[in-house]
Amino acid sequence: MLTRRAMLRMMGAGAAGLGAATLAGRALAEAQPAARKKLNFVFILIDDMGWMDLACQGSKFYETPNIDLLASQGMRFTNAYAACPVCSPTRASIMTGRYPARLHVTDWIAGHNRPNAKLRIPDWTKYLPLEEVTIAEALKPAGYATASIGKWHLGGPEYWPDKQGFDLNFAGTDQGQPPSYFAPYKIQTVPSAPDGEYLTDRLAEEACKFIDANKDRPFFLYLPHYAVHSPLMAKKEMIEKFRAKADPASGQKNATYAAMIQSVDESVGRVCAKLDELGLADRTAVIFMSDNGGVANTTSNAPLRAGKGTFYEGGIREPLIVRWPGVVKPGTTSDEVVISIDFFPTILEMAGLAPDPDPRHALDGISFAAVLKQTGRLTREAVYWHYPHYHPGGATPGSIIRAGQWKLIEYFEDGRVELYNLREDLGEIKDLAAAMPEKTQELRKKLADWRASVGAQMPTPNPDYDPAKDKSGPAGKQKANKKKAAATAGASPGYEQQVAELELMSE
């Protein structure tokens, strides 16, 4: 029986054969330039960047001139979502075009241990299975060179990018964050670095090297930065600049975080400059996205509610920019609802490739290429999230559906639901579940039907449930807060934020 991976390879070979037949009788010299005109892709994924963390999104504190320029040259999406409020599931969804719930990769790897919580989490998958076909594997039969440069976080060495269709893996391991942003990094797949080198700069340098080495063939460059994930570390001179600029009354005031964003912005500028230098910009699509919402005690996602690790918009709505020269009208915005599972089919369509026709291997995502071309809109009924886990950001096991302007959140611990009209209430202030029982029931049924269709794993009652011992539960947090208050009495003003950031480092 053919695996999905083998079938895609055959499809790629078949497509190549058809291309050769079309070119029969032409000189080889004509065929080679034609092959080089295939669309290149640069996919830049930022870690933990919030919806409002760019100047082009409305920030008055962070400085992002290069990303803003990218937005002015492409399309900026205002209703773009990550498939999960934490990183690994979103990354898996980008790689496969499938919902995390279908993959059973539903939490950051390796997740939190809550042995005394009310619910026991399911036996989920802590790696991206090799049986899944990645976007790199789908593009390779069409002649694409592929590289993953940066954070991977989808399993141990046997599941690293070089086992998942990427020709090059630089800096990708099972680590969710770097031990340090300054060399020595202690990242196994970064062979050497001069002391004091900054990781974000190094990833940009390696990305430019890959582009240079593959300028004469089509390429897919996946550039998932570790930034702006904790530990918060940045260049001293940048920190000082933002410290002088910070407004203590603003929710966006962390100078180190702002400096990290500036370094990310500079890396985007370097990569785009390399495309310009080599004359590749006109046939290279650049995609910019984040993997989940900003950490609420580090940045402000307002007007969105909450942040990373929650089911509210601040945890899942992301900045998304797509530059596709000659196709996307510069400086446009779209309010279409798109989600990270959509990148796989969109990239395939942009590359002129067909998805696997076998219905058993259907993608969950749908292409939004027509939106980019401004020739059509999406007709999808709803998008979904499933997170049967606990997170210190605030999430308890639950699921979400967004259908049009309506968003319903279902919590599994007590069966509670919340309903919001995002068109009228972007900040999710007014819960309409009790006032609109018919709409609530309609969406709840759609959500249950979707979970069944993708084989979503559900948590179960925990026989070891003990609220007094559950350190991350309400009783445990109350006890911990009393201890923290006693411990931090007289401490420096920034101490509690440092503690909070350290608590989130393992994610």
Secondary structure layout plus pairing:
Blueprint: H1 4-22, H2 28-36, E1 40-46, H3 65-73, E2 75-81, H4 87-96, H5 100-103, E3 119-120, H6 135-139, E4 145-149, E5 168-170, H7 199-213, E6 219-224, H8 236-245, H9 255-277, E7 284-290, H10 313-316, E8 317-323, E9 332-339, H11 343-350, H12 369-373, E10 383-387, E11 398-403, E12 406-411, E13 417-421, H13 437-454, E14 460-461, H14 474-487, H15 495-504
Parallel strand pairs: 1-6, 1-7, 2-9, 4-5, 4-6
Antiparallel strand pairs: 2-8, 3-14, 7-8, 10-11, 11-12, 12-13
Short description:
This protein has 507 residues and is an alpha/beta fold.
Descriptive account of the structure:
- With 507 residues, the chain is α/β, with parallel strands linked by helices.
- The chain has one domain (4-18, 39-378): Alkaline Phosphatase, subunit A.
- It contains 15 helices and 14 strands.
- It has an 8-stranded mixed beta sheet with strand order 5-4-6-1-7-8-2-9. The chain has a 4-stranded antiparallel beta sheet with strand order 10-11-12-13, with helices on one face.
- A hairpin with a 2-residue loop joins strand 11 and strand 12.
- Helix 7 (199-213) runs parallel beside helix 9.
- The longest helix is centred in the middle third of the chain and has 23 residues, at 255-277.
- The chain is globular.
- Residues 7-35 and 483-507 have low confidence and may be disordered.
